[in-house]
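This follows on from our talk about sequence and fold. Go ahead and set the record down below:
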Amino acid sequence: MVGRMGESSASPNGSFTSVMTLTEEGLTYVPKRYILPPSLRPDGTLRDTSLPIVDLSHRQHPLLRPQIIQEVHVACKEFGFFQVVNHGIPLSVMDDAIDAASEFFDLPTQDKRHLLSSNVRDPIRYGTSLNHVTDKIHFWREFLKHYANPISTWIDLWPSNPTCYKKKMGNYTMEALKLQEKLMEVIFESLALNSNYLHEDIAQGSQVMAVNCYPACPESDLTLGLPPHTDYGMTSIILQNHRGLQIMDRDEKWHSVPLIEGALIVQLGDHMEVLTNGIYKSVVHRVTVNSEKKRISIVSLHSLAFGKKVRPASALVNEQNILSYKEGSFSDFLDFISGDDIMEAKYIDKLKINP
């Protein structure tokens, strides 16, 4: 049994303990470093509202497309969030990706350790919490992040163990990129922009796969898998195998995101807020954990190419909607998180002209 004052996740001598290791050791309560102050713990108070679901099957239908565009506009304006069904990615491809992720996290720590990194600029890195070296409070998560577009450039860096990982995660990654291009066309059209706006930049943009494991937690009410935050990019496409994601609405009320068979979650990020000059806002979200099930989520994070700046679309800046954001890039975001604690500062606030 691991005690309340269990060993730190990272220590000067290079030792490393992930939450998967803690659960395998028979942990019966949460070590002190994972316990959040009472004000930051999930209190179970949730707003019971139907969250938007968009059916993409009629995206190309001339009579039904306007309805889909309107649904996307309302979802982006009110929540910065929606789920998509009939999106074109086969269920078998999604299931394979979850299986590959689960097999990776089930490996012994020594088989994952070579990917361990606290450098946010590494194109592939494995870790626990947010950053196991610098975190003051740790979060109940193990993760693998790797660059993905173009996949031919990056896939050789991906795990070779389990042997199925590159093929199964690669198939899903390529499908997610295709879906991202479709989604951006619809989102831009919902803003009265040309559906092909920034088309080449979108196709050549950055794609980071954030593969997350949230093991069952013995005292799930004392900690979180991830704290409240926004994603940096244009959009995040999320595949999950169990509930755990919660989003905050514009009234700062939390909603639990349901698990819908075959659906994918779409979240707007900070760069979308910049591009729309604040018409659409990035969605604040967090991840809760539970005492019974290990949860896997695969997040495909999309923005423009690494150093390419995202700026407000000129058509969305006028007397009624004055320029409100500075330009920013994926590289700028990495600079930000290298020096700031996301618990204490927000990247989007650094980009606001009048915060």
